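This part of the workshop introduces the protein records we will be handling. The question running through the whole workshop is how a given chain folds. To make this concrete, we reproduce a full record directly below:
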Amino acid sequence: MALRYASCEDAADDILQDAFIKVFDQLKNYQDQGNLGGWMYRITVNTALQAYRKQKSRNTHHDNYSQENDGYVSNESLENMKMDDLLRLIQELPEGFRMVFNLRAIEGYAHKEIAEMLEISEGTSKSQYARAKKQLQERILAEENELKTRGYGS
């Protein structure tokens, strides 16, 4: 899970380590109500969000992202893709896109909640989510086309 939020394995390792430190520090406060794994998962997500906010405050630049190419990714393309490849593509997304994509598509948060968590506007959350999906589609299509030109695809 930490890999989805991080840009690389080292960053994911940092998130996971920080999360486990928090888990061990707060274990005495866990009241055995609910699932321990779910509680630890929530701490890990919150740790990833804190790391994002910390990094965001250091980086004040914004990249310009193209919105050309309306490619469509079929379910078959996704089914044929290895999980590691999809994870790599998610990790390659720009940081803001990656955070919003994970929170919306995978964690199921509403844009209003995401906006509050990431300290951005709801409109920015929606925009970044749309752009993240578009970039993922473009990258999946590009990889699929690359495989076809090499003779690996159907």
User: Anything to note?
Assistant: The first helix runs from residue 2 to 5. The helical segments are 2-5, 9-26, 36-58, 75-80, 83-92, 95-106, 111-118, 122-149. The two ends are 32 Å apart (CA to CA).
